Amino acid sequence: MTPAHDSSAAAGRAAELRALLARAQHEYYVLDRPSLSDAEYDKLFRELQAIERDHPELRDADSPTARVGADVGDSHLAKHTHLVPMASLDNAFDEAELQEWDQRLRRLVGDAVDKDGYCCELKIDGAAVSLTYVNGELKIGATRGNGRVGEDVTANLRTIADVPRRLEGKDWPETIEIRGEVYMEFDGFERMNRERAAAGAPVFANPRNSAAGALRQKDPRETAKKPLRFLGYAFAVPGNPSLPFTTQWELLESLASWGIPTPPHRRHCPTLDAVHAWAREIENTIRPELPFAIDGGVVKVNRLTLQTELGVVGGRIPRWAVARKFAPDIAETKLLDIEVQV
Ligand code: NAD
Predict the structure, then answer these.
(1) In terms of domains, do 255 and 306 share one?
(2) CA distances (Å), 35 to each of 68, 146, 295, 340, in order?
(3) Where, by residue number, does NAD(+) bind (predicted)?
């Protein structure tokens, strides 16, 4: 049991944390204006998870820990139901937690993971979207929303130069949802905020919230003025078509061959030690030089059939992937300070 909590104290604290987190989720996902830093949010989230783990009688399907993103019921945009739900990710805050994740999945699939190892990617701090291509043509683009239903932002996504209207090559499946992240580079973000401040408009807290806000504009001409970028890293297909890739690594190569930009600095790691080394290099050497924000790395079991076998917990958390979160970026804390002064 969580030492600090007997049952009634735990119920009280859980209610308090749920209210705080529900408000933070609304500010972050719906208003695009968070009042907590991500590190503060993650700390409260983990505290609630620990209480729910130690007090199963307090578990609740409506808890912020059981949700993906936020409902889009009140949105001014049309709704889109995803082919396959868009999930969230569990976090590993250090090497020991990453090792625990690896041990959990090995209890289910044994050493089969050693055959193709892990695919390690940057965790781009943007807004998740899904692009549906039919016969190679972009038909629908949608936000993640609550994971099952997102907002239709097709017209807005068409304004982003990184999002191809038509896929290159020809070995793509007839229908495919390509998933990835819309984000803003620091340069574009700072320029945009300076212009907003000069015009007396409120500035955005960070590039992530700014990108999410720009993506959900009513008028695509407004989105077109924003310096949005896109990187793709995942897919969903209806039925069981034959695919030109069998691993996450090959998927990224296929996406690139179809004209979809993919995360730089990725690495195919045969062992967990190699994954740790990659994460250290990204955190210490690569992140300070990147032109965009990341909030960690994502470690994925490389073989796609193993991903399917491992599945998704509670419709929310894939067992086959984990976010290796880094210490909060000082730049983000600074930007929140600026926001407070405006
Ligand atoms: P998440 O951001 O921790 O992880 C899932 C998301 O990672 C995916 O949906 C995808 O959009 C993204 N991602 C980026 N690169 C990826 C890659 N290469 N492969 C796979 N996915 C990739 O989960 P979440 O549910 O989107 O958000 C939770 C996080 O959001 C929290 O940990 C917190 O940091 C932040 N948050 C902050 C506040 C706040 O008030 N500051 C509120 C809500 C959420």
Answers:
(1) yes
(2) 19, 21, 18, 9
(3) 38-42, 88-89, 121, 144, 181, 300, 325
